[in-house]
Design goal:
The protein is an alpha/beta fold. The chain has 6 helices and 9 strands. Strands 2-3-1-4-5-6-9 form a 7-stranded mixed β-sheet, with helices on both faces. Strands 7-8 form a two-stranded antiparallel ribbon. Strand 2 (49-58) and strand 3 (61-70) form a beta hairpin. Helix 2 (28-35) crosses helix 6. The longest helix is centred in the middle third of the chain and has 18 residues, at 99-116. It is globular and about 55 Å long. One of its GO terms (biological process) is small GTPase-mediated signal transduction.
């Protein structure tokens, strides 16, 4: 009977419209291309509005994702709200190597999303986490007494805007972190991200307790703070794995 219910759950796919917003050059499109299995490139191609489709299976759930990649340029501010129609979840992205993009999350992107989608869950995404310890980036920021966005700072802003989760990723060096992001987003979209305080792992990152090519000692499990009570039945337990060599990767809030 249990197996039959699991098969039924896989047969009944959940549709999810996911909209990605954030400043231009924050890493949105590279992140999406990595998730879709495309080769990473440093060549920047300006985005207007692009739609993608993908299917994910997480435990016994299947998600049919429609992903909208939007432009962060000011000239598209008047037409971008069209992409918010009937969305399930929003990903607000910023560039860890450019602190002002996180400031714009609070000043522009969160108010815009909440204006058009007052009840949809939000995931705050720190892109380009591989540049946090980049010497050239740190040297450039130091000219104005700045530093790359720390993990704690990103998590604090995520809490401030009421995000369901704060996730860091690198399309260039850590594709698994991108897939973890979309697993978290999919579960949040289904209302299955009601996680009690525990130490658990994301399906794609740690199916056997380790990540490919890494020793067990290089992994550290992440505690997840208790969410408020919800009427969601049988919440899915997700694993959040932190890779020490890449700094912290994912925090579910």
């Amino acid at each position: 009977m249990r197996r039959q219910r699991s098969l039924m759950a896989l047969d009944e796919a959940t549709r999810c419209k996911l909209v990605v917003v954030g400043d231009s050059l924050s890493g949105k499109t590279a992140m999406l291309h990595t998730f879709l299995g495309r080769q990473f490139t440093d060549v920047h191609t300006p985005t207007t509005f692009e739609n993608y489709s993908s299917t994910m299976e997480i435990n016994k759930y299947r998600m049919e994702l429609t992903i909208w990649d939007t432009s962060g340029k000011p000239e598209y501010d008047s037409v971008r709200p069209l992409s918010y129609n009937e969305i399930t979840i929003a990903l607000i992205c910023f560039d860890i190597s450019r602190p002002f993009t996180l400031h714009n999350v609070v000043r522009k992107w969160h108010p815009e999303v909440r204006k058009h989608c007052p009840t949809s869950p939000i995931i705050l995404v720190g892109c380009k986490m591989d540049l946090r310890n980049n010497i050239q980036v740190m040297a450039e920021l130091s000219k104005d007494r700045g530093i790359p966005v720390s993990h704690d700072r990103g998590a604090k802003i995520g809490s401030q805007i009421g995000a369901a989760a704060y996730v860091e990723c690198s399309a260039r060096t850590n594709p698994s972190s991108v897939h973890e992001l979309f697993e978290v987003a999919s579960l949040a979209a289904m209302g299955k991200l009601k996680l009690h305080k525990s130490y658990i792992d994301l399906p794609s990152a740690c199916r056997t307790g380790t990540l490919p090519g890494l020793s067990t000692t290089s992994l550290r499990r992440l505690s997840i703070r208790k969410k408020s009570e919800s009427k969601v039945q049988a919440p899915v337990r997700v694993k959040a794995v932190v890779v020490e060599r890449e700094s912290r990767g994912c925090i579910v809030m």
